[in-house]
Amino acid sequence: MAKKTYTYHDILAEVEKGVFHPVYLLMGEESYYIDRLTEAIAEKAVTEDEVAFNLTTIYATDHTDPADIINASRRYPMMAPRQIVIVKECQNVKKRIDELLPYIEKPSPTTVLVINYKNGTVDGRKKITSLVQAQGVVFSSPRVKDQMLPSFILEYLKKKNVGIDYQATMMLVENIGSDLNRLTGEIDKLCITLPPDVKTITPDHIEKNIGISKNFNQFELKAAIINNEVVKANRIINYFCDNPKLNPPIATVAVLFSYFASLMQAHYAPDKSEDGLMGYLGLKNPYALKDYKMGMRRFNAMKTMKIISKLREADARLKGVEKGSMSDADVMKELLFFIMH
Questions:
Q1: pLDDT, averaged across the chain
Q2: Of 235, 255, 76, nearest to 149 (Cα)?
């Protein structure tokens, strides 16, 4: 009987040992872990010499017939102990996904079937999830929370024996966000471009190789707001308004909303000690706590609540709701004035 709950590292550990299950259902909002697991299984389940005849990849569309997936899975491997069938974008056949049940009830012992179901999870009312759990592995990959991104970056770089300073980390987090495939792609680019004798990524490297300004970015705007640096905050917001493609207003509002929403949580945390706040906010880096401790002194709970309301209003206006004759720049400048005063 297969284990009911698998983590990303559980599956990788088994794959490294050469342990494979007949069926994998890899689903969720975060495609990065789904892609990495699929790559790992494909790399280890068949050798390089066996790939040509024993690796089948099906890109599902709304016209894909589940019978084609079943027929591919029931084929025998050629001159190899197993074959692997990968179904990508299986969410496109979600209305007919139950048609895979006859195969999953009795999967071929010489096939490893990997089903990728992205941008959501299989409807819990469908039988397929429980059946895959009985025969193989179900893995759910939720969107990574913003507060977990710094830890993700540090761990990713640790495997490459590369360090990164705090400001550079936050520049990546707040300007790229939680799209892990894009984030790791940019990190890989930074690692490749590092001089041979340099082992730490700095804001200068990010500015030069990714194009995020070390002086005019969302991290610096947030820091200016927290530290009540009115002139600096206005200079940054003016730069954003002059370069909206590099600094989309919606993205800036999202970063500020995330901070103030967490700040509101901090105001009502039952334990306001350093350890208590870190645990309550889900922070891994003590350095990140400084922003919240400073924010709690700068903005009381009532002001924080009003700012959150204003951020929601700005978000709606940027999307065209009750915007009137205001430009996006007008919306952002009005928002900043409200926050700073």
A1: 92
A2: 255
> How far out from the chain centre does Cα 164 lie?
19
The full DSSP string for 247-301 is S-HHHHHHHHHHHHHHHHHHHT-S--SHHHHHHHHT---HHHHHHHHHHHHHS-H
Where would I find the H helices in 63-113? 66-74, 101-105
Look up residue 320 and give its amino acid. Answer: G
Question: Which of the 8 DSSP states describes residue 20?
Answer: -
Contact (Cβ atoms closer than 8 angstroms) between residue 95 and residue 122:
no
Q: Is 179 left (phi over 0), alpha (psi -120 to 50) or beta?
A: beta
Does residue 47 carry a pLDDT above 60?
A: yes
- Give the angle subtended at the CA of 169 by the CAs of 166 and 175, to the nearest 5°: 135
Tell me what pLDDT residue 1 has: 45
84-102 pLDDT, tens digit each: 999 999 999 888 899 999 9
Q: How many CB atoms lie within 10 A of CB 110?
A: 16
Global confidence as pTM:
0.78
Does the structure show a pLDDT above 80 at 3?
no
**Which domains, ranges and CATH numbers included, belong to the chain?**
8-140 (3.40.50.300), 149-340 (1.20.272.10)
Integer-rounded Cα Rg, in Å, for the chain is 24
Residue 195 has which token pair?
A: 């001089």
| Beta-sheet pairing, 137-140 with 23-28 | parallel
Reference 177, options 205, 146, 148; nearest CA is: 146
Closest CA relative to residue 256, chosen from 208, 203, 313, 189: 313
